[in-house]
Every structure is written in C-alpha cells, then in structure tokens.
Write a structure and sequence with these properties.
Helix content is 35%, strand content 24%. It contains 16 helices and 31 strands. Helix 4 packs antiparallel against helix 6, helix 6 runs antiparallel to helix 9 (236-245) and helix 9 packs antiparallel against helix 10.
C-alpha cells in the first residue's frame, strides 16, 4: 500500500478487520514510528450512530493512560470516512492464541487476567464500563504484555445509567443483566472477565447455542459447568475465582476488579483467597449465632424454672390454699406408681419374648447395598456385616467406571446367613473403541505431546519445524488431524514444532546499490526506509550506512533505515529539541529551512512553549525547500 493519510501516515499493510472497521499497519513519517490506523468502513461512514461511536472510542482512549490500554494518538477524516491513529501492538489477540494453542496454563491465565484487571481499574476509575471484554479485544505482545482495545461501546456512569433497549456486546461474553437490558454497573465487566478466564483455562465457553438469543438466555438461566470438569488439572482456587465472577446476581460477584486482582495474586503466591476468608467468616458467624441462640434458650429455660418452681418441706408449710391441692396430688402420684409398675411388667414380658426370637435369628443378616461401589469399599462394607464378596463375572459398561460393581446377588435387603457370599458383576469400564478423539497438543512441548498421543494408541509419523513469534523452541504449533477429530486407533498424526523466533542479522550491504539492498532486506521480511545523504565521493544511490548497524540482530517486520549517497543539494537538520520555540525557529531561519509548527498538549508545565520533538530527526538531511516540523508543547 502506498496511501498516505493526512500527509503523515504512510499505510504499509492490512493487519485486521472487524465488523465496522479495518486496521492497518502504518508509519508515522512525522514522528518516525510505526502506528496502527483504524478506518471506519465506508458503508458505515454515513451512519450518524456509527460515526458517533467511532469518535467516542477515540475520545475515551485519549483519556485513558495505562500500559495495559492501547494508546490513542490522533483522529480525523479520511477518504469519505474517518480514522483513528493508535499505538501499534506487535503480537496476537488472545482469541488467536486460544485458537492456535488451546488451553492456557493457570499461572499464565492469572498473569494475563491481572493485567486485564489493571486496564479495567483505570476504566472504572474514569466511570467507564467497557461492556465488550472478550479475547478478540485483548492483545498480547510477544513478552506477555496485555493491551485492551475497542472501547467503541463503552458507557459512562456519569452520562447515564447505561440502561438500554439494545443489547450491545458479544453474546458469548455478555452478562445476564446486559442480556436483559437492565441497568448496568462495573460488575458487568467482571462477568465478562469471568467468561474470558473460563475460556483461557478450558479453550471452551461456558455457554454455546445456535443463535445469540439462545446463548443470552443460557447466561440468564443456566449455571456454567465447572472448568475442572472439562480440564481436570485446573486448580480449585482459580476455579473458585472464575465461578465467583460468573454469579448470575451482580451483588454476589466480586465487588471490584481490584478484589479479583488481589485473589489472582493470592492464587499465584499460594495464599488464601479473599472469597474463602469471607465465606469462612460467614460460616463462623452462623455457628456463633446458633450457639448464642442455644445458650439463650437454655438460659431462658433455667430462668423460667428458677422463677416459677417453688418447693416446700411438708404439706403443712405450704399455703392454706395449696394444701388440698397437695393432698390431691399425693393420691394421683400413688395411682401413677401402680400404673408405672404395670407398664414395666408388660414391657418386661414383651422383651423376654423378643429376646427369645432374636436368639433364634442371631445368624440371619440383611444384605447391604453394594452396587455402584468400588470393589475394595464393597468388601469392607460386607465384612462389617460378616459377609463376603465373590466376583461372579465382569463386563464392559460405559456408565460405570472400571472395578466398580454393576450388580449383586442376593439383592440388597435380602436375608442370608452369617458368613454368606454376595456374588457381584464387576465393570471393566468403557468398551474399547476402534476410534479415538484426537487430543489438543498445541502449546505442549514435543516430549509431552508424544506421550499423550502414544498413550491414546496414535502415532507421530512426521514432524516439521518452523519459526514462530509466539511459541518457544520445541513447542507444538500445529497438528493434523486437528483437535476433536475422530480417527482410528493407530492413526498417524503430523506435527509442526517451533524453532522459536526467526532472529535475523543485518548483512553488510555498505557500498551496494540501494535497489539491490532494499530488495534483499525486503526478502528477509524487514521494512525499509530510505534516507539521503549528500556525498560526492560515492555514486548516487550507493548505500553509505544502515541503521541498525551491520551485524545487529533484528526480527522479521522490524524497520531498517538505509542511507544512500546523493548529489542533490541538501541541508543537515539541526537538533532543536528542548529549545524554546522562538530559539528553534531562529536557528532554522538562519539555515534557510522552512518549517511548520504542530502544537500538542504538554504533559508537564516545563514542556510548555518547548520543542518536544522534531521531524526530520537531528543530523539527518532534508532537501532544499522541504519543510521541517516542530512538535511544540502548549
């Protein structure tokens, strides 16, 4: 591409596309750096709502300054549409990483999530709800730095209550209250973060469906399957964090992303979680309340007896009114004594009869229930009843695990003699299949991947190696057949293994013609920028120097400046940075260099009326009549 936007941003290549906009890699010729240019699709450029949302994203990002949020540099109109110039982030989206790698380890997941929390903390402190947290909007640099982007549907709590008839956001990551069009709070971002955590750990989503309405209804009504049921190695602590974020009721989730970040750090450092401490405190409070209640009831009962129980040494000492009552009670008590004696005699006779009956049946045992029990546990249970377990047969069963009891004879509850045997049919587990499901080994080292594949009865027949910007050496980056495919036992699996990053070295091309040098560097995957230096000792077009220098290690896609000889009359650009604008202008005028001034907001008072940066860079050459640009703080 050769388009130049607003005489400044030279387009290089398209690097991404979304529903309403395309993103391009570009070079800022004024500030000599790579940038990302996001251009609103022309079909939406005439739609007032889309333009307003596009402009709002630029304004929001411009006010959010954080290492984990993509920085915004510029905004304007271009070719009947609009553009945003922002920080160029090398790397991949989290969505691409999950698609290629599959599950992400719990520790890396926690580290990524802590950085997402950092970005959301800044947004929330600025009264903004992102409302569209998802892997597609999360960028990951090669060194593992997270960058959050796409604040196009973010909403301010100051401007309104964020209640909307239109359900914005992506169905897979939408919160229940967002799906219902309810008033939103920061908690909606917490729910979406929970879905992202879930997907990083399992490479799957909590809810799927045929359409967005079905998925939204599941978010509202259904409880997600615990991640550990999908990937058994997921630690309990991080699973608790995920499930706490995914509570349906916003009030039951974490109260802030700061709390999530604290618990993620607790997980990494193996400390107790905040939510566990709160739960323990609540349980202790409930226990204390129960004990206090019991103590109160006892005390009340004691006080009642103390206040209302009155005794006398004899009938004569009792009040006159009570004497007749006492005599009456005496008669009743005497009658009750005879009654109790009669009852005791009857019970004694019944006991004697039952005792004799029990003696005749003392060797009869009721058979316990042992179906669906592990064989060893069933043996212990039978021994308690003085019975024995005897394996009658075994068979395959898809629903009962290996070495568990499928059926028993006699049935539970039957009466047998002491020392009898219970015959059982034992499960051999699932019926072996001639087919197996291909596992996901992308992201694993070759040794672990080989063991997993061989243990499933599959074979690795071919391995290729290639460079990768994301995966380290000896890590699987591709497999065929793909994860989830059904293949026959003994099937061959092809793998590609990472060689690590393709580190290039700047060759010695000093003295060569610039067209040859440019093509050589381009074939290595490097981006070339040509600069001129007046020199009469070399033929025009010959390379005089290169930056980075010869022998420097670089990566594919890096920018390389080559400096070529020219007989053209040129002027060397002085260094006027950190000078007052008046002094800088005076120096340029003395050298007959024309200039333009671009004012930017100064971050510090000391930068006001000073030249913060310049183009071209100091000591580089510009043609006669070419304008310099001074970036001045105000």
């Amino acid at each position: 591409m050769s388009d130049i936007i607003v005489d400044r941003y030279r387009m290089i290549s398209k690097i991404g596309s979304g529903g309403t906009a395309d993103v391009y890699l570009a070079f800022d010729e004024k500030l000599n750096r790579q940038v990302a240019i996001k251009i609103l699709s022309r079909i939406y450029a005439s739609e007032r709502n889309f333009v307003a949302r596009f402009k709002k994203e630029a304004q929001i990002l411009a006010n959010l300054n954080d290492p984990n949020i993509v920085a915004i540099y510029d905004w304007g109109q271009y070719d009947s549409s609009y553009f945003i110039c922002m920080e160029y982030v090398e790397g991949q989206s989290l969505e691409e990483i999950i698609d290629k790698q599959g599950i992400i380890s719990p520790s890396v997941t926690a580290k990524y999530a802590i950085q997402i929390c950092n970005a959301l903390e800044v947004a929330h402190k600025n009264n903004l709800i992102h409302r569209d947290i998802k892997p597609q909007n999360i960028l990951v640099t090669p060194d593992g730095t997270i960058k959050i982007t796409d604040f196009g549907i973010a909403k301010s709590l100051i401007e309104d209550t964020t209640k909307t008839i239109n359900i914005l956001g992506t169905a897979y990551y939408i919160s229940p209250e967002q799906a219902q069009g309810k008033i939103l709070s920061y908690s909606t971002d917490i729910y979406s973060l929970g879905v992202v955590l879930y997907e990083m750990l399992t490479a799957d989503l909590p809810f799927r469906g045929d359409n967005s309405i079905e998925i939204s209804l599941k978010h509202i009504n259904e409880k997600p399957i615990k991640p550990s049921l999908l990937v058994s190695s997921i630690p309990l602590q991080i699973e608790k964090i995920v499930m706490h974020c995914l509570e349906k009721d916003p009030r039951k989730r974490y109260d802030s992303v700061s709390s999530i970040k604290a618990d993620l750090k607790n997980f990494l450092y193996r400390k107790p979680l905040i939510i566990d401490k709160k739960k323990e405190g609540s349980e202790n409070l409930d226990k204390k309340s129960s004990i206090d209640k019991l103590f109160f009831l006892k005390r009340r009962s004691k006080n009642f007896n103390e206040n209302y129980s009155v005794t006398y040494d004899s009938i004569d000492e009792a009040p006159a009114k009570s004497k007749k009552k006492s005599k009456f009670n005496f008669i009743i008590n005497l009658s009750a004594s005879y009654t109790l004696a009669a009852i005791f005699l009857i019970l004694f006779v019944i006991f004697a009869i039952n005792y004799n009956s029990l003696k005749t049946k003392q060797n009869i045992i009721k058979v316990p229930h042992v179906e669906n029990m592990l064989l060893d546990n069933a043996k212990e249970a039978a021994a308690f009843y003085r019975l024995d377990i005897k394996k009658k047969s075994d068979s395959y069963d898809d629903s009962i695990p290996e070495n568990y009891i499928i059926s028993q004879n006699p049935e539970a509850g039957s009466e047998v003699s002491e020392g009898s045997s219970i015959e059982v049919t034992l499960s051999k587990g699932k019926q072996p299949s001639i087919f197996t499901i291909v596992p996901n080994v992308i992201g694993l080292n070759i040794a672990d991947a080989t063991k997993i594949i061989n243990d499933l009865g599959l074979k690795i027949t071919q391995t290729q190696k290639e460079y990768s910007d994301f995966f380290e050496e000896e890590i699987v980056i591709y497999q065929d057949p793909s994860f989830g495919s059904e293949v026959k036992t003994g099937e061959n699996i092809k793998l590609k293994i990472s060689l690590g990053q393709n580190i290039l070295m700047i060759p010695n091309i000093i003295g060569y013609d610039y067209s040859y040098v440019a093509s050589q560097l381009a074939s290595m995957g490097l981006n070339v920028i040509i600069n001129k230096i007046p020199n009469v000792d070399y033929q025009p077009g010959k390379v005089l120097k290169i930056s980075p220098e010869v022998g420097t290690r670089v990566k594919e896609g890096d920018i390389v400046n080559i400096y070529i000889a020219t007989t053209e009359q040129m002027i060397q650009m002085p260094d006027v940075t950190q000078l007052s604008v008046d002094k800088a202008v005076s120096i340029l005028q003395s050298l007959s260099i024309s200039y333009d001034i671009s004012n930017v907001e100064a971050q510090f008072d000391i930068q006001k009326s000073l030249v913060i940066s310049q183009y071209p860079s100091p000591n580089t050459f510009i043609s006669i009549g070419e304008k310099a640009i001074l970036i001045v703080g105000q």
